[in-house]
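Subject: for your reference before the review

Hello V.,

The reviewers asked for a structural picture of the protein, and I figured it would be easier to keep everything in one thread rather than splitting it across files. Below is the amino acid sequence we used in the manuscript, unchanged from the supplementary table.
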Amino acid sequence: MRVPVEWLHEYCHPPLEARALADRLAMTGTEVERVERYGVGALERFVVGRVLEADPHPNADRLSVCRVDVGDKEPAQIVCGAPNVRAGQTVAVARPGAVMPDGTKLEAAKLRGLESQGMILAEDEVAIGTEHDGIMVLEAGEPGAPLEGVLPLATDVLELEITPNRPDCLAIYGVARETHAATGAPLAKPPWSEDPGTPGPVEQVSVEVRDPDLCPRFTARVFENVSIGPSPPWLKARLMAAGQRPISNVVDITNYVMLLAGQPLHAFDLDRVSGGKLVVRRAHAGETVDTLDGQTRTLDAEMLVIDDAEGPTSIAGVMGGARSEVSHETTRVLMEAANWNGPNIHRTSLALGLRSEASTRFEKGLQPEQAMGGQAVATQLMIELAGATVAPGTIDVGGPGPPPRTIRLRDARVSGLLGAPIPRERSAEILTALEFGVAEADDGLDVTVPYFRRGDVTREADLIEEVARIDGLDKLPATLPSRHGAAGRLTPRQRNRRRAADAHTAQGAHEIVGWSFVAPDLAERLRLAEGDERRRAVVLENPMSADQSVLRTTLLGSLLDAVRYNRARGTGTVRIFESGAVYRKREEQLPDEPHHLGALLTGAVRPPTWREPNPRTADFFSAKGALTALLATLRVPFTVEPAGELFLHPGRSAAVLVAETRVGWLGEIHPLVAAQWDVSEIIAGFELDLDAVAEAAIAGGFPMYRDVATFPEVREDLAVIVPDDVPAAEVLAVVRRAAGPLLAGAEVFDVYRDPERVGAGKVSLALRLTFGGRDRTLTDEEVAERRAQIARALEAEIKGSIRAA
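And here is what came back from the structure prediction:
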């Protein structure tokens, strides 16, 4: 909604600059997207002029050389290309230095060899109309007088973002009402407060409404002796600043009333209404109508039309028809101001792909009472601007709307909901300014809702919102809501989710939030195996686009999207993670929504330094280190085993197991998959079912702490030769089982391969073992016995042996 401030000031003129007014409106709930200056600049360079002479240009057939009195001692010479310029005319002149609507600065120039000291203006050159074929001829003004005193040359415009529940603010007067309440500036009486029309029947035409559920009210008036012509400059200027194109006085009146009062209207050429009767009815399936935009629309049985004896003449509430359009030959006008069912208008607009200023307002829920207000304003303007005579009577089919609702506003409820008391007198002042009816009650106020807020204010909480937003939400103190003796806390699962995210953030990773909607070909791009449950995605019935038509079954897609986005913009190192739901399809049931955590790393694992200018890049072991730190924070032990995921690099991937249950994957992304996201570097990462991990953490109970050992530990290094296909994790598992409780720690610190010294197809793993007792210092014999047990277990279980020194 574009609101010219000059037009707004006619009804409410606060002592505020446009930007200060925008800030105040925004603080009271009327969002202002931008403030712009509309029209020309350097207003002092625009003056009234009088053409003294207009002679043909000696070097150009279509130009005239004019001597124009602009209030200076000597007339100005101006070269003009308009065909209608004549001596004796009072005209609009732009002097050198004037700033035109497009921002260009006018300079003195030579046109075909003769100097031109300015420009005689057409209306489009000052943005108050679209006419360019001829100059404007003014009715009044003395030479040299400021042009802004004769024509509306410039105004600030507020561009508002009106929420769907406030159709009353899709009107200049509605915004003026909000301005009045927000600033305290006086509010002029409504423009429909005086109505030149009369009630009663209309002889020339009749109206039948067959579907009152879709047309709660239909009003119409007949105007005779109508003179079709251009609108005056002030009206054109307001329409242009509000984003409407002037057409003719009658059409401009309908648009002007819609912008001012919020009630769309439609003007019929009464002589082109066949049979002199209009019928409001549902369309027949397949019925067509030629609309004002030159298109033929095919209708269905849920759409509403207005027809005459020859068939549909307009689509109700959306757009008029070409057959009864007002033209330059029109002398009798039937002015319609009706009220339509909002959801039906919305459905019709969507089905036809046809949105108009009228449908935008109707679909938000205008009220029946607004129809007569629109008729009153239109009647005033038809008499004033089109010289029309109002025929006796007004067609009015349907009621004025349901009776107003009265809601009790309790003082205690106001303070309880807002956390601060607002005096009853202040509440009454605010609601009265917003045109609510207010009466005193024992415990507060009895508030009567005006018709234009009927669809929005339905309960006490809505009234409290009105009081709070106008009084100032920024004034309310920060308070905790009433708990009524209850205490809230996170569940164990929620705490573990937060701990997991915090742990990953502590490692320098950035959290992302990806779309839950993905493209249906994601499974193919990830090379998921046939039969993989991640291929069974939930398909959306009404997707935003084809690329977002299924619900994700893995976080990997959005993580790879983020890697590509960052790498394409020059980010060398990417460490990201996401914590969110995935969706698994179940037959004839709602989908499962397990909570996953996934992470990806690419680039250097640490920043370069002078000692290490080229740090190593992320790989399988970098991802495993991040995973280990994460699960250590949750105090969840895990193991890994070979994985068969096709989207992971063979030999550089693993399945993650917690309590012998698979909970995710770990590894490097297969180069063919990475190439799908335009990444050639190694990408390593993991993805966990965080719900399953959290269950394991919860099952582990509270962490138990023990005293630091007071007895010295015994550390030994052991070289173990095993077949090359035995995972190191399996070697460590055998060692821990064989050594028993005296083994305090075991880790692999080196890997060695040499066919001659170790053997073909074998590998030597260097293990660091730590033995310790809680109650004594271990002897060499005890450690030797455990070492012998380890040797026997290695040989028996994995065909391993201890390598001699």
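For the response letter, the relevant points are probably these. The CA atoms of residues 61 and 194 lie 53 Å apart. The radius of gyration is 40 Å.

Happy to draft the paragraph if you're swamped.

O.
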